[in-house]
Design a protein that fits this description.
heterodimer, A: 313 residues, Rossmann fold, Alpha-Beta Plaits, 2 domains, six-stranded mixed beta sheet, four-stranded antiparallel beta sheet, 11 helices, 38% helix, B: 377 residues, alpha/beta, abc type-2 transporter like fold, 6% strand, elongated
Chain lengths: 313, 377
């Protein structure tokens, strides 16, 4: 059966003076980890809140696990778990009390709660902290406790809004391990993030810019679909390289990535000699100039550029 | 539904009692305020610092000033020699009253004429000044009466018994000794419970907004109504406990009698608190932080106390303000408090106040609930 778990059709949401979501459509298949990627203000949180049934759209519609979020926003709440950037934990309540509180709100029976809480806490390595007050946990542990609370009622769809924002790398990895094991249990995950390396961990991603969907596909296919190629130039004076080559022939966009400059060019093999000659002529030092596989970040910058020129034209 | 509600109540009480600071602020401030108000709040004027200036130096003038200094209402601090000393004394608040007797005081009295006494007062504290004048008047009237009798006795002994006079026999009901503490203590209970319940309610909601749990609750199947009940019921219970606790303090420590029915008082408290909870919720819908909620709550509390008849009689207010007091639930609650404590009256007397509080409470809660729903979207 190929029924989609999340269906978003032509969604529109306006806030005073700004269109936050602009005719957005996408589908999420069962058991998928779906990434909504975009910079701040792209409309990620707004999309999440509409899917969670707490915000009514101005146009279009969406269904989550066959429940229409516009017609039955309360019904959605039993099927999903929504985890915002900071999960709302009660800091003066202990780990167990927080779990119990959320379990009771979702009508989870005591027996189910006990077994599921034990399982979830164990899988994220928090079994020995059950009696500790949530306020005394580290940031990463708070986020994991948030996930435990969000999962205590076994949702069909898990909506995560930038869940690893400001979380240390180790906790982040553990967080992803939990997500993968959830998918194994048949939970569908919709995950928004501004971190492009996280987007690469998703099965499919939707790139959002100013409320519009730029494209939606698997990370690998997005990369292969990209026209042109990326040239990476490593230099101690990366900024000068960027400024010098931004307007060079065949270069469509430039982005700084650490101490390297990534250039989108129409044909890497043909342009590399010209580019290096130009840098040498200007006496700008550089260590290497090679063709690289584009990252999601490169794709994003290029996609946004194309989108802006489209809007300008 | 019941289970969800039970959990929210339980959680709210954990919030209230787990934190040391929260426990402290639940018990100590009401206790302190009750003690401070119980002792400090009083209309009685005693030991008014007084200076006397006697230009007459007669038997009569000395007699009169003797009566002043013998009264516990006045304390003669200075005996002056000339008028130039007066301004400095009043400026520095060394005295608030100067009694001045002009030469010829005794002579006028002996001739059976009206003799003046001048009272110079510091009018800054107009209430004390008014009451002090009233006391001087009483002493002067008694002095004149006694003097008249003496004079009559000396001049025409046979007619001594013929001296028409009126004697006022004071029989204050409910508070025989007219102790102003009996008036104030029930009032303090009302204002205390208003302040604490109002702030607890608004803080409880705003705190959830601040830490982000309000948004979290919105994505759970809990309904706004369950949330509102869960967020207000604990403070209704706290408020009722507060009234009982502070009431016991008032009647045992300050010996203010409780003559009525405790159930009538608790009914009145419940009706009154529905308004306080509603206003607390309303404040929470317009506040983003607890500081904001704290500041806004004062915009309500101050006029609510001013218009309640807590300290200033409603009957003396301008008519427009008197109408306005009908919107103040504390006004009706104070009648219920004083009625149950001092008068010992029941529902047959207090029903209009109960109905008024029920109407105000229902209106406030409805508005608050509607606005609360709106701010959640």
């Amino acid at each position: 059966m190929d029924e989609k778990t999340v269906v978003v059709r032509d969604l529109v949401k306006d806030f005073p003076g700004v269109r936050a979501i602009d005719h957005l459509s996408f589908d999420v298949a069962p058991g998928e980890i779906f990434g909504i990627v975009g910079p701040d203000g792209a409309g990620k949180t707004t999309t999440m809140r509409i899917l969670a049934g707490v915000l009514a759209p101005d146009g279009g519609g969406a269904t989550v696990a066959r429940c229409d979020v516009v017609a039955d926003p309360e019904g959605v709440k039993n099927l999903i778990s929504y985890m915002p950037q900071r999960f709302g934990l009660y800091e003066d309540l202990t780990v167990d009390e927080n779990i119990r509180f959320y379990a009771d709100l979702f009508g989870v029976s005591r027996r189910d709660r006990e077994s599921r809480a034990g399982e979830l806490l164990k899988s994220c390595g928090m079994s020995e902290f059950r009696g500790r007050q949530a306020g005394k946990l580290s940031g990463g542990m708070k986020q994991k406790l948030g996930l435990v609370c969000a999962l205590i009622h076994t949702p069909r769809v898990l909506l995560l809004d930038e869940p690893t924002n400001g979380v240390d790398p180790v906790s982040r990895r553990e967080f992803w391990v939990m997500l993968y094991s959830l998918v194994g249990q048949g939970v569908t995950v919709v995950n928004s993030t501004a971190y492009l390396d996280e987007a690469e961990r998703c099965h499919r991603v939707a790139l959002l810019h100013q409320g519009r969907l730029l494209f939606c596909d698997s990370p690998a296919r997005l990369k292969s679909r990209l026209q042109g190629s990326v040239v990476s130039i490593v230099s101690v004076e990366a900024r000068r390289v960027r400024d010098e080559l931004a307007a060079a022939e065949g270069v469509s966009s430039v982005v700084l990535v650490g101490d390297a400059v990534h250039l989108f060019v129409d044909d890497a093999e043909r342009r590399i000699p010209d580019l290096s000659a130009r840098l040498i002529g200007r006496q700008i030092p550089f260590d290497e100039i090679v063709r690289v596989t584009p990252s999601i970040e490169d794709l994003f910058v290029e996609a946004v550029r194309k989108d802006s020129t489209r809007v300008a034209a | 539904m019941i289970e969800r509600l039970r959990q929210i109540l339980l959680k709210e009480f954990i919030h209230l009692f787990r934190d040391k600071q929260a426990r402290f602020s639940l018990i100590v401030p009401p206790l302190l305020q009750m003690l401070i108000f119980g002792y400090a709040a009083s209309y009685e004027v005693n030991r008014v610092s007084t200076a006397v200036l006697d230009f007459d130096h007669s038997q009569e003038s000395r007699d009169f000033l003797e009566r002043i200094s013998a009264s516990s209402r006045f304390q003669v601090r200075e005996v002056l020699q000339n008028e130039s000393q007066i301004p400095s004394l009043l400026d520095h608040r060394r005295v608030v009253l100067v009694l001045q007797i002009q030469p010829g005081f005794a002579e006028l009295l002996r001739k059976g004429q009206t003799a003046p006494i001048q009272a110079v007062l510091d009018g800054t504290d107009s209430n004390t000044a008014l009451i002090a004048v009233e006391y001087i008047n009483q002493i002067a009237a008694r002095f004149a009466q006694d003097y008249q009798l003496q004079l009559a006795d000396r001049t025409r002994p046979t007619l001594a018994t013929f001296a028409p006079n009126i004697e006022l026999q004071e029989r204050p009901w409910y508070n025989a000794n007219l102790e102003s503490r009996w008036f104030f203590v029930p009032g303090v209970i009302g204002t205390l419970v208003l302040v604490s319940v109002l702030q607890l309610t608004s803080f409880a909601v705003v705190r959830e907004r601040e830490i982000g749990t309000l948004e979290q609750l919105m994505v759970t199947p809990i309904s706004p109504t369950e949330l509102i009940v869960g967020k207000t019921l604990p403070f209704l219970i706290v408020g009722l406990a507060n009234v009982v606790f502070v009431g016991i303090l008032g009647s045992y420590w300050f010996e203010v009698p409780f003559r009525g029915n405790i159930l009538v008082l608790l009914l009145g408290t419940t009706l009154f608190l529905s308004s306080a909870l509603g206003v607390g919720l309303l404040i929470s819908t317009v506040s983003q932080t607890q500081q904001q909620a704290f500041a806004i709550s004062f915009f309500y509390i101050t006029p609510a106390i001013m218009l309640s008849g807590f300290g200033y009689p409603i009957g003396s207010m301008p008519t427009t303000l008197q109408y306005l007091t009908n919107l103040d639930p504390l006004r009706f609650f104070l009648v219920v408090l004083r009625g149950t404590f001092i008068k010992g009256v029941g529902l047959s007397v207090l029903w209009p106040q109960m109905i008024a509080m029920a109407i105000l409470g229902a209106a406030t809660l409805t508005i608050a609930t509607l606005r609360f729903h709106k701010t959640l979207d």
